[in-house]
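To fix ideas, we now present one chain and its tokenised fold:
***
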Amino acid sequence: MRKAPDAIDRHVGARIRLRRNMLGVSQEKLAEGLGLTFQQVQKYEKGTNRVGASRLQHIAAILDTPISYFFEEAPSPSACAIEHQGDTPTELLTSKDCLALARAFVSIKDETVQQKVLSLVRSLGSGKAAPDALEDWVQSRS
């Protein structure tokens, strides 16, 4: 029976993926810089394989970030003992679609439009109909 990835290993992997995506670096490019296959980078990012200290230092250099970045917002030791309960902000932002949505959202300069988009997305996420949210947003754009 295979052991599930440790919460810290998943977190560090998610932060590697987040930073890599923020810089627009592919798994292949990162792997090339590390002298690995992209599959190994995938395993690091999923937390399936633990990243050693020297390898993490090399990753930090390639991604131009301090090593401490990979441990920011890390789960506490007591939280690691609790079963994984859902997506953390870091895990959410490692999704290409979520990252694209965040970039598009912050590119909206009109604060009122941002609030209407946020309202629309919240209503869609709750499964409740947002009768006026989309209409209001469309009208504010014209």
Observations:
- The radius of gyration is 19 Å.
